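MODEL INPUT / OUTPUT PAIR
PAIR INDEX: 1
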Amino acid sequence: MNDALRRELLAMQAADQDRLQTLIETGELERHAYHPRMRAVHERNNARMHALLDAHGWPGQRLVGEDGARAAWLIVQHAVLDPGLMERARPLLAAAVDDDDAEGWCLAYLEDRLRTMAGRPQCYGTQHDFDADGRACPLPIEDPAGVDERRRALGLDTLAEATARIQRRYRPDGASGE
């Protein structure tokens, strides 16, 4: 295991999450389509992730541990400024999942994020938005009848369970449910 790389990925994840939490707490996140301070973190993380993919391929669990691999996923998942990075990472992550070196749910979230960003229906139902009443609803899904089977294959709970969890967490009254 490469502990230095693991620590670096965890620090990149912490920078992302700490900045996000600060912007939420101060109310600044809502005032910008893409907050410049959040953008700066993502641009720095995206550039570094390109270099890490060049050097190591997907940083899987055997290389950086379970938490390091999850951090790598979060960094790529938040790379909305650089869909090319997300597209580049997808086959590497898929190969790691096939090799039991990454968790399947990470691939489901990345695949769905890429699809919804491209205006296409998602495959796994991981991406939700809020309706006019403030309730979470999954974005359009390709083959909705088979979604739970696809979700199970990658280690996710059912779409109904996931949607209920999101609705509890982000209640319409603005109070957190979890």
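PAIR INDEX: 2
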Amino acid sequence: MITAVMPEDKNKHIIHTIKEYGKSLLSFIRRRVNNDADAEDILQDVWYQFSSVINSEPIEQTSAWLYRVARNKITDKHKKKTETLLDDMLTTDDDEDDATDFRSIMFAETSTPETEYLRNLFWEELFLALDELPEEQKQVFIWQELEDVPFEEIAKRTGQNINTLVSRKRYAVLHLRKRLKQLYLEITEY
């Protein structure tokens, strides 16, 4: 069923759609992101895109469209977080151009068997390197970088000073840079 909406009915249609799909869509997003703030930001982006598209093109199945946009926004969020993580671990002052090459391989828009292999290899090596860290450094890095937990929250969870946590993360990043440098060189040289 194609939903065609006249301009004067746009607001009513948007409100109806938000009431009908809002809770289930937010629940869907929450299960796929690390915190409620990210979930709410993504939901807001979905509603913004929905309100922008509603007059310009008909939407065949509203539910399918909303969930597809939500999935895309979640993927974009994870991709952006991973790019930041790679920047943090692999970029130093003297190798910025090489890091750009590495990111272009890891985040190529097209997915080929080679890019999938490289991505999997990166995550495998990252987790092996994380297992080499002292538990406190590993946990702070995972919470801060992979789960996007702010230092303030980690301090509350652990009872540790924020400066101590920042220092632990720094040692973790230095170790990961060192450990992943060889993989980085191999990938950028191919």
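PAIR 2 NOTE: The radius of gyration is 21 Å.
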